[in-house]
Amino acid sequence: MSARFFQYVAKTFLILFLFALGLPIQSSAGDPRWGTASLVVVVEREAGSVLIIDSFRQELLGRISGLGNLTHATVKFSPDARYAYVIGRQAQVSKIDLLTLKLVKQVNAGGVSVGGVISQDGKYVALSNYVPGEVRILDAETLELVKTIPAVYTDAGGKELPSRVVGLVDAPGNLLVFSLMDGNSVWVVDAGKKDFPVIRKFANVGKTPYDALISPDGRYYIVGLLDSDWMGLLDTWKLERVVPIPAEQGKGPEVPLWKIPHLKGWALAGRLAFLPAIKREAVLVYSALDWTPLTPIPISGTALYPVVRPDGRQVWVDIVGKNGDLIDVIDVESMKVVKTLNPGPGATHPQFTPKGEAAYVSLMDGGKVVVYDTTTFKVLKEFPAAHPSGIFFTSRAHKFGM
Question: What's the N-to-C CA distance of the chain in angstroms?
Fold first, then answer.
């Protein structure tokens, strides 16, 4: 028998021996092996880098730098959660291999971007761009440009104008849904067809769309409106019209708009939806069965991200402006704030591990990421970070609009 055969047998026995002892198995290059299901990517916005953390072992795996302007950056994942796509403010898309922690491809896909999404079939990365106003679609494998969809609307005088694009999500049926911030409309694209046709355009949905979410089951698209006292609701099963739902319930004195809040599908807990109020210190609550408004919940300031724990029992809300260092924890059963945490300067973007036993919070001005036990509220771990902002778990790979 050849020497190569004996080397193979010896290596196999070594792996089995290490496995039996419960010791870590390493690759031939000496790097530890990890799965991607429990990884979390943290944006270091001013450093132009991201941290990769194993949330199961609570270990920092590494940092990837050279990613450009990461103000308002977002991270999307391939369906197998092997690749992370970091989309920066200047529409720079960086594809990272989460098994090797290497930057494998980087392209520029516009002038100013506010996010993106992976199509339902995983074949495409779509960007929502402010400049130029468009949706730009890239091949997820090569990052080559596949299609550009200009976001052009006609004003009251009949003039065609470009619009900023917001609220881009993927939807069942391989659809892409997005809103025109300046065009006050919602468009639907069929990403399953070769030419990516715009199959529906809904005009006059309300004034100044700023963000949107899609429900976890992919059925309802909700667009937030800065200058209307309602939100728009689109049933993706029917694609008939955008229905207004009230957003002024419990309205009190207006407070400054410190920062535009965000809408995401993480704000839905079973039959309830928790959404940020505009210029008010409250979380809006809706029945997710028929989208009727319920009693809003007072909070410590204006909300940025209301985030539901995966089991639906708690909602964690970060505060901006007044009391901007606080996180309010709402108990869903009592519909009240039962705990107010003070993680530190610039606490933002609370996100849960896939089963919700821990929550990660960025301290943008405190230079770290703090990990909390969601039952005891004790700090489990702290990771040093350079002005951290967005926190993105790979579990998003299997969720619509994430």
Answer: 53
CA–CA distance, 97 with 80 (Å, rounded to integer): 11
DSSP reduced 3-state for 351: strand
pLDDT of residue 270: 82
Q: Which two tokens stand for residue 67?
A: 């990613």
User: Could you say which residues of the chain have pLDDT below 70?
Assistant: 1-32, 249-250, 265
Amino acid found at 399: K
Whether the ω angle into residue 298 lies within 30 degrees of 0, i.e. cis, is no
What local confidence, expressed as pLDDT, does residue 204 receive?
A: 96
In whole angstroms, give the CA distance from residue 80 to residue 55: 18
The one-character DSSP state at 259 is: S
Closest CA to 364 of 19, 47, 84, 2: 47
**pTM (2 decimals)?**
0.89
Tell me what pLDDT residue 249 has: 66
Read off the tokens for 98: 């989460």
Three-state SS for 267?
A: helix
Taking the CA atoms of the chain, what radius of gyration do you get in angstroms? 22
Q: What is the DSSP string of 139-205?
A: ETTT--EEEEEE-EEE-TTS-EEE--EEEEEEETTTEEEEEETTTTEEEEEETTSTT--EEEEE---
Distance CA 372, CA 350 (A): 10
pLDDT confidence of residue 193? 95
Segment holding 18, helix H or strand E: helix 3-21
Give the residues across from 165 on adjacent strands. 180
CA torsion through residues 192, 196, 198, 199, sign: negative
- Residue type for position 77: F
Q: Three-state DSSP class for 8?
A: helix
In sign, the C-alpha dihedral spanning 218, 220, 224, 225 is positive
